[in-house]
């Protein structure tokens, strides 16, 4: 990813892309957290002992709480990195990038496929 970071630093984020990202990121995160809650419910509803369910859920929440789909540093300089993380986490797909500039989409696809 170090090579990708160097490539990301050279990209100037267009104002239109930055505004679109800011308008969508909260929606993407809400949808991702809703998906996580469904997964947590599946853990809770297993036939395992209560202590097993509790600790499995605890570990999952601890792991998930650091994902970009849950918490993100929303600075312009971290936008592409955040998008890459959201793709990797399954919080978004390429279709969610509809409306962004072709340049940004192309760069994200290139970096993601070479990550």
What labels describe this entry?
115 residues, mainly alpha, 5 helices, disordered N terminus
Number of domains: 1
Q: Could you give the distance between the termini? A: 6 Å
The low-confidence runs, each spanning 5 or more residues with pLDDT under 50, are 1-9
Mean pLDDT: 92
Biggest β-sheet strands, sense, barrel: none
Describe this structure in words.
- The chain is mainly α and 115 residues long.
- It has one domain.
- It contains five helices and no strands.
- Helix 2 packs antiparallel against helix 3 and helix 4 packs across helix 5.
- The longest helix is centred in the first third of the chain and has 30 residues, at 15-44.
- 18% of the residues are buried.
- Mean pLDDT is 92; it is low at 1-9.
Note the topology.
Elements: H1 2-9, H2 15-44, H3 50-64, H4 79-89, H5 102-113
Helix pairs in contact: 2-3, 4-5
Sum this structure up briefly.
With 115 residues, the chain is mainly alpha-helical. Helices cover 66% and strands 0% of the residues.
